[in-house]
Amino acid sequence: MKWSEFENKKIGIWGMGREGQSVLKALKTHVSECQILEIGEETLNLLNDCQIIVKSPGVSLYRDEIEHAKEKGIIITSGTNIFMANKNPDSKVICITGTKGKSTTASLLAHTLKALGKTVCFGGNIGQPLLDFVDETPDFFVAETSSYQCADFIGQPDLGIMVALYSAHLDWHGSLAQYHKDKMNMILQCKKTIHINQLDMNVRDDFFCDKDEKLFRTSVLPLYGNHNLQNACVVLQAIKALGFNLKNCESAFQSFKPLAHRLQNVGQINGVLYINDSISTLPEPVIVALDTFADRPITLIVGGWDGGYDYTALDKMITERKILALALPDTGNKITTPYHVKNMREAVRLAHEKTPSGGVVLMSPGAPSYNQYKNFEQRGEDFIKLVDELKGNKNEKN
User: Fold this and answer.
1) Which pLDDT tens digit goes with each residue over 20-56?
2) How far is the C-alpha of 280 from the C-alpha of 26, rounded, in Å?
């Protein structure tokens, strides 16, 4: 919706978190006459008074209140859609989505474009809401786009990127089929698309390659895991699609700083490496993380809020590889292990006692954190704090 369409309207902002605050600020800046209602779970009755509802991503598109509002002719939109309708038309928009890997891929792409001399505004589901940048005029807007934001996305990004896709957020979307359909809603509107399973870029003999042409060594990228090499290949594919020289990406990759809570190197104690992978909220990424350190003894800290995910494959891997698993409530009960711990402090203490020199303590829960923490960031920070206590605050990183 253009700014003019909000004039003289009664507008409800449903959800006053980061996205809602961004919408409020933008409407006050760009719309001269309108009435704004701030709506939360205790004031849902105000929805019926609105002509337009701007919902936050956390509000499911499939709630009964949304259906009832649509039946009454109330317009439903989002901060992302408002951005797409009012952004600088000369700036290119790149949207990255998927279940896992989208934050790292989007961050590495934004970093690489900046290193190539381009101006970039980076945000979306990570960092600042896109609407905060609506008055900016960069060369590129790079947006990490969640499934919630994809579901009702309206616009035409210049490039859409799909990274690894699993099962997630079924409580919001209703089913796995709807989750995948909602992800594809944004992708299908893009002028060009890149899918992680359909790349010219590949890794061969420890080199990033464009088909058969070697570009530069993979060792320049300061990230763990083959999955991150694949995410880097997605970035190279995007850089190629945008018409830049791929070999100029080497120095950009080398200077990239890994994101926190994603196979983050927390440090070493007595030859044991401690890894914070708190972003792991599904069982599939834990399997990937275990493969990343397959050549070392692993103590796995696993478990969290029970979202109803299937842990059969993960439990089988832990058993077959004889991985020492320290299982946290509640999903830890689905893991076969003699060690069921009450909290992170107990898990870190036990991991310190049981892991041999040369091993890895991998905190990759494979579950959301809501039963013991506000979010995965808080969980990761608690793990880091506990490891720092063990180190006596001595920083002995690789």
Assistant:
1) 999 999 999 999 999 999 999 999 999 999 999 999 9
2) 33
